[in-house]
Amino acid sequence: MPLKLPSTFAFSQSSLQSYVNCPRRFWLAYVEQLAWPALEASPYDEQEQQLRLGGQFHQLVERAEACMPTELLADGLDYPLDEWFESYLRHRPDDLPTEMVEVERELSAPLAVEAGQYRLAARYDLIAVGGEGADRRAVVLDWKTSRRVISHPTLAQRMQTRVYPYVLVEASAGLPWGPLAPEQVEMRYWFTAAPADAVSFGYSSELHEANRAKFEQLLGEILSGERERDFPKVADTDENRKRLCGYCIYRSRCDRGVEAGELEEYDEEAFSDEDLEMALEFTLDEVQELAF
Ligand code: SF4
Fold first, then answer.
1. What is the mean pLDDT of the chain?
2. 243 CB near ligand 1 (under 6 Å)
3. Does 38 contact ligand 1 (Cβ within 6 A)?
4. Could you tell me if the CB of 248 is within 6 A of ligand 1?
5. Which of 2-16, 102-116, 257-271 has the lowest mean pLDDT?
6. Is the CB of 251 inside a 6 Å radius of any atom of ligand 1?
7. Nearest-CA residue for atom 2 of ligand 1
8. Which DSSP string corresponds to 227-258?
9. What's the CA angle centered on 123, arms 49 and 276, to 5 degrees?
10. Distance 240 CA to ligand 1 centre (A)
11. CA-wise closest residue to 235 among 17, 41, 22
12. In the prediction, which pLDDT does 54 show?
C-alpha cells in the first residue's frame, strides 16, 4: 500500500524540498498536517512582518503587471516596500518576451510512478512567452524578498529550480502558447536585495530527463513509507540543529531544542522563503489570521 496522502495533495517544490531537508518534516507537515504552536524564529513579530511584507510585495507586482497605474500603487508605501517597489520599477528585466505574460499562474503536470498517478504543481510569479520559430522562448520569473541573495550554486540545488521549468514544459503542451521544448525555457530569480543582478538558469532536454528521474526517485522513496518511523529526522548534528531544526516549527516535538533561532541568523539557503511561509502558516493559524 502506498503512503496515504490527503486526497487533494499534489507534490510541489516546497513539499519535495521539505523531504530532502528532513524526511520527518515532510511526514509531520504533509502527511499528518500537524500544526504545532512553537514559533519558528525569534522574535516572532519580526518574522511575521517579514512574511507579510513579502506577500504585499508580490501583490503590488501582480497589480503592476496587470497594468494598474504604478504611481497609484506606489502612493503611501512605507519602508521597505517603497524601496522594493522602486527597485522593481527600475530593474524589472527589460528583455522578457511580451507576447504572453501571466502572473500568479498555477500549473501542474502528472507524474506516473509505480505506486500510482500523482501530480506535481507549481505556482508561478510570472511567465513570459514570445518569439517565433527558433527564437520562441519562455522566461519564468520568481520575485524574492529574502534578506540576502541566494547564491547560484545553492539555487541550482533547490527543488524550485528543478520543479518550475519541468512543470512548465510538461503543462505547456495543453496550453494555447505551448508546447515548449526544454531548451526554450529559462528560470530567473530576481531579488529585492540585488535587483540589478537577477540569477538565471537555462534548461535543456538532459536536465528535463534528469529532473523527471529525480522526481520519480523521490516519489518512490516517499510513497514506500507507511509510518512516522519511515521518515527519519535529519541527522542530529550541531549544524543541522542550527540551520534546520532551530527554525522548524516541530523542534519541540522532535526534541531538537526549545529556543527559536534568531531571525538575523536565518539561513535562507537552507530553508526557502516558501518553507518559512508554510511553517508560519501552521503557526499563525493558531494565533491569528494573516491579513494580506
Ligand atoms: S525539528 Fe529538525 S528533525 Fe524535527 S522535523 Fe524539523 S528539521 Fe526535522
1. 85
2. no
3. no
4. yes
5. 257-271
6. yes
7. 245
8. SGGGSPPPP--HHHHHHTGGG-TTTTTTTS-S
9. 30
10. 9
11. 22
12. 86
